[in-house]
Amino acid sequence: MSMDSKLNELVERDRDHECKGFGPDQVCVRIVAVAKLPSRFGDFRIAAFWNNRDQKDHIAIIHGDVVGAEDVPTRMHSECLTGDVVGSLRCDCRDQLETALSRIGQLERGVVLYMRQEGRGIGLANKIRAYALQDQGLDTVEANLALGFRDDERDYAVAAHMLHSLGIGSIHLMTNNPTKIEQLTRYGVNVSRRLPHLLPPNVHNRFYLETKARRSGHYIDFSGTPHLQEQSDPVIVEGMPGAE
Ligand SMILES: Nc1nc2c(ncn2[C@@H]2O[C@H](COP(=O)(O)OP(=O)(O)OP(=O)(O)O)[C@@H](O)[C@H]2O)c(=O)[nH]1
Ligand SMILES: [Zn+2]
Predict the structure, then answer these.
(1) What is the 3-state secondary structure (H, E, C) of 163-203?
(2) Ligand 1 atom closest to 131 (CA)
(3) Given pLDDT bands bounded at 50, 70 and 90, which one contains residue 87?
(4) What is the pLDDT of residues 181-236, one digit of tens each?
């Protein structure tokens, strides 16, 4: 069966899908529409999902035949309008997204989950409030706390169910964030391997990345010499200020 027919079958199957849900919030997800999506990063299909937890359209960007597959290279990306769309250099989001899409686009198969969890789940306006506090000297964790949020408000139950809905048996997760692996595993996803997803820092996001390593326990090595191999990867955004 072709990949398109397989995915269309999943849409049919999910029309009346209901289950006891993932995690304490009993999160249930349906795959609602699939279409082809040729992109500058490769050939993809895009799948839209409904869920019973938030009002957001979460998305899977799929390359190759992933239904029923094991060890599927997977990137779980959190929406970042400032980075993804505007090309902000305050974070590493766009570099990570573009690199994930082009790497996966060149593999046999893989998937990028584009989760609408702007600002680590606090939303766009609040992220900009957090940026304003960072402009006054707070770090990214302190800014979230000052606004009355946890440093990270994301929950990956929707993402876990999305992978389940796609029939993906196990994943190789592209991340430096141990919490993503812990949570997905808790929600029943088999993360058979972690693939480091580091890109070279620029002058604007270096402190932000250091904070992720120092305060949020991300696997990013700044002090250790030699640096992790991945940090010497060629720069993705040509002409990026401060790029080494
Ligand atoms: N609250 C807040 N969110 C931010 C800030 N900078 C980037 N983000 C958001 O952080 C999310 C990306 O998460 P990161 O913490 O950068 O990285 P990660 O996805 O947890 O980890 P990796 O998988 O290793 O990339 C996106 O939703 C961004 O909008 C910030 O200063 N404050
Ligand atoms: Zn960002």
Answers:
(1) HHHCCCCEEEEECCCHHHHHHHHHCCCEEEEEECCCCCCCC
(2) 31
(3) very high
(4) 999 999 999 999 999 998 888 888 888 888 888 887 888 765 433 334 344 333 33
To test the pocket of ligand 1, the residue of 93, 115, 198, 230 to mutate (highest count of ligand atoms within 8 Å of its CB) is: 93
Extents of the domains making up the chain: 3-117+154-232
Ligand 1 site residues, Cβ closer than 6 angstroms: 78-80, 91, 93, 96, 117-120, 122, 127, 130, 140, 144, 175-177, 180, 197, 212, 218
Write down the pLDDT at residue 140: 94
Homologous superfamily in CATH for domain 3-117+154-232: GTP cyclohydrolase II (3.40.50.10990)
Distance in Å, CA 97 to ligand 2 centroid = 10
Label residue 149 left, alpha or beta by phi (over 0 means left) and psi (-120 to 50 means alpha). Answer: beta
Q: Which ligand is nearest to the CA of 77?
A: 1
Buried b (16+ CB within 10 A) or exposed e, 5-36: ebbeebeeebeeeeeebbbeeebbbbbeebee
pTM summary value = 0.90
SS3 229: helix
Q: Which residues surround ligand 2, an ion (CB under 5 A)?
A: 80, 83, 91, 93
